[in-house]
Design goal:
Shape: elongated
Helix content: 40-55%
Strand content: 15-25%
Structural class: alpha/beta
Largest sheet: 8 strands, mixed
CATH architecture of the largest domain: 3-Layer(aba) Sandwich
Number of strands: 28
Strand order of the largest sheet: 7-6-8-9-10-13-14-15
Amino acid sequence: MESSVAHLRVLSLLAMAVLLFSHQGGAANSDAEMEVTETNQVLGTVGAILDYSSRIGKEQKVAVEIAVEDVFFHTNQSLILQLEDSHGDPIQAARAATQLINAKDVEAILGPRTWEEASTVAEIGSHSRTPVLSFADLAPWTTMKWPFLIQASPSQYAQTKAVASIVQSWGWRRVVVIYEDNDSSANGVIPHLHQSLLEVDAQISQFVAVSPFASSSLYEELGKLKRGQCRVFVVHTSLPLAIQLFENAKKMEMMEKGYVWITTGAITSLVHAINSTVISSMRGVLGVTSFSQETGASFHDFYARFVRKFRLENPEENNYEPGILALQAYDATMAVAKAMAEGNIEGQALLEKILLSDFDGLSGRILFTGHKLPPASSFQIINVIGKGYREHGFWSDGLGFSETIDKGAKYNNSMENLGHVYWPGGLPSTPKGWTRPTNSNKLRIAVGNGTMFNLFVTITHDPVTDNYTFSGFSVEAFRATVEKLPYDLSYELIPFMGTFDDLVEQVHLKKFDAAAGSTAITAKRYKKVDFSLPHTDASLVMIVPAQSHTNNKAMLFLKPFTTSMWVLTVVTSLYNGLVIWILEREGDPELRGSVIRQVGTLIWMAFAMLFSRSQPGEKLRSKLSKMATLVWLFVAMVVLQSYTANLSSMLTVTRMEPTVADIETLKYNGAMIGFGNKSFAKSYLTEVLKFNPNCMKNYSSPEGFALALRSKEIAAAFIEAPWAKLFLDRYCNSFIAAGPKYRVGGYAFVFPKGSPILSDMNVALMQVIDSGRLRELENNAAESESCIDVDSNDQDVSLSPSSFWVLFMLTGGTSTIALVMYISMNV
């Protein structure tokens, strides 16, 4: 930025010097002047500074001349046109501006198209109070520095959003930008393109500045790009330089399968002027450009006259159609003419009249706002095919892609909906946008070591062969994901013994192509690298020692038996009591009486047998009663003993509860806490949960955590969820999780910002998850961990009929047999 400002100051001083010391005279450009008769009224004199060596300059010259003819035709008034050739040189443009103002007495100047030319001419124009209508994109501050400078073409910065939308449509994450080495690119489209790509999560992996005067340098730069990894190129140069670039790219086989080329309006707006021989080297290119509706009688009249005139003046050209820049030059001339038609005005008054212009031009609506036309909001997308090109569709800011630009157009967020694109090499399938570098056989994948449990990452070194072997859940998850990629990915795993923050930094510096292992996603790390989808949870869990708690519920006496067991016991007792009552009723007068008395006696008899061998009244007389009662007393004894034992267990069993309920208790008491070595937990505990760093210790093994918790060296340990689960599985009776989980992003694979394989890895990882393979790997890791605590706490189990069904069948069957025998003997 500082260099461009310094350059601008030099040009401004030079322009002033030209203005002060140039000769006042000069030969008139008689070819460009319009003959004015004495009967014609002269509106005024307007100058135009054009680059005749460029196609744009040639088109603009013809366009402004036709505009002058139209002014005379419609108003019978003459607009004198003075033309100067800048040769594309800012210094020559400054001299031309001085010549026009001092020698030709022009009242306004048209045409500086590049930023360099516009800045020098604007300095001269503002000093002499002469309005300058430029066709270059201007920075917001330019009109404050040069109040007589007007941007006469809509800003093209919005085209960068169209380019970014194309990149987003096909899921490309990295882009190489090739631009012409001049201030126009550095201060204009390139910064906007960078921002637009960031908004769609795409990165510019490389900026390549090329010079139009060094073809050998261009060839060398293309060679470097071919050896690189990115295959999506955005080109923003002048047309002549673009032609050189694509011709060299074709020779180097960079217009073939796998490559993507996108051109900005600087090139695409002139694609109609490229001959068939040259355009054949651009097959498959996508281009973005401004456009006009090209409807109405005025346009068709202009088009026909332009073609005839351009052919006569430029027979060497292959195509004579006007581009959007020619239409803009015509409209700018008409805007000046309309302002001059208000009367004999100049300077500030003329500037204000031009800024008030409001009419439908050939290039669109002409209505200046703040010294500028409104920025373009819609752009046309073209696709070069064969020896020509086709109009592939449109992109509108805030709406998206469409096949037409009419009122009834249907818009989509993705360009895929516009139909088939002819890509370089003529392939129907979309290029993936990247490839492995030709100077590298394998991708370097770092594997972080030092996790608490080796089940997730295990790195083994063989000192004899000096080889490393890698295993564990995270490593296997990475391998399974790579296997799902739609192409072969050659890679090598490399051990990394530093912290995970150091690992992320190394990936950020592109020392590694990716990192596989248990790296947690955090906001701090996300600023430097990209992460894949998480392959497991990484919440932070608080682990504390467990303490006992006696259960003393009021209804605990019912819990030794299940509901069905209680029902069966009651029913069996009533049945046995009924049988004894029937068998003993005739011989025992106490069993007779009213119905109510007999029912009460029966119920009392049924349940009294559970606790006593005696019966109501005298002893049992019937042998059948004695047989049934003997069996029932045996069963009752077993049931009662089982009930007593289970109830005793429930009254004395301990319940496990945490010694610390929440983190506020820890912070209030200033208790020491522990966290995992190499874990993100330290920063999370201090920055998010606000623990005192002086009250924290780190541990590198589950044994270290267990010993510290048991010895009360620490009151709590904060462990990442996967390790916490394995830790509690190992120490199942000593420790317990307490409080909520503190969620973070999860464990994921790490990639450099804008990595081209990230999107493919995410798709592959989702396939691994959907297929159940990831769950299988996770279960295999968890199953290998078993509880090593000696003491165990039995779970409360209520006794059910399944434990006593034989006994109940025995007593019920015995009572039934006694009853049947009694009935048969008394029939």
